[in-house]
Specification:
Helix content: 55-70%
Number of strands: 0
Radius of gyration: 29 Å
CATH topology of the largest domain: post-AAA+ oligomerization domain-like
Number of domains: 3
Distance between the termini: 83 Å
Mean pLDDT: 88
Largest sheet: none
CATH class of the largest domain: Mainly Alpha
CATH architecture of the largest domain: Orthogonal Bundle
Number of helices: 11
CATH superfamily of the largest domain: DNA polymerase III clamp loader subunits, C-terminal domain
Length: 261
Amino acid sequence: RGLGGRWTLSEPARARLAQAADGDARRVLIWLELAAELADAQGITLETALPEAVGQGAGRRFDRGGDLFYDQISALHKAVRGSGPDAALYWLARLLDGGCDPLYIARRVARMASEDIGNADPRALQLALNAWEAQERMGSPEGELAIAQAVVYLAVAPKSNAVDAAFAAARRDVGRYGTLEVPAHLRNAPTALARELGHAEGYRYAHDEPNAYAAGECYFPPELKNARYYQPTTNGLEGRIGEKLERLREWDRCAGRRRYP
């Protein structure tokens, strides 16, 4: 209607236009209006002007900041979390094809490494950061391959959200208990006055203790002496971390000295 019925477009050209627009009717209208302006200015047909209007490598439907944008990011994250490397690559390719900033994707991939892999495989975070740096240093398309490598590694890595859950629990306690006093034995004592006030009094230096562990010591305020946030899974490296923590807790249970009764 906006073109006043002055222009015609063959069926093959319409099909190509629909494919390039990838279902986005707004994009079709914008391209048609631009093509009409070019056709008028250059004295050519609408069909001849259309490729220039569409441009080479026109992106797929991608609504930056809209629902489709976040749906595709969500799909990538869920594929990584669910150990689906092939689906993760597909959604990564969709995002890049649609014009998403690769650096934004790299930042989200780094978040995935901490949130969904964590200490089950700490190398995942380093690989994600390396991919981020590669994109910053090389740009596209070279850096995008590094992001793809990181996405595949994260998807096949052992999974754990234990750190994410533990951090959230610690933050809830900060909100619940407010500003608890730092216990005297944990306070800094850089001056004679601080020491006279009891700062660092009774602190046990772990390196002077058997196995470099002060069994029975507590590093919480007394109100939180029994708090336990980090619950390691048995996946990947975190299984070994859990075994060590259980060994340290057994030493605590058998210790002759305890910070709090």
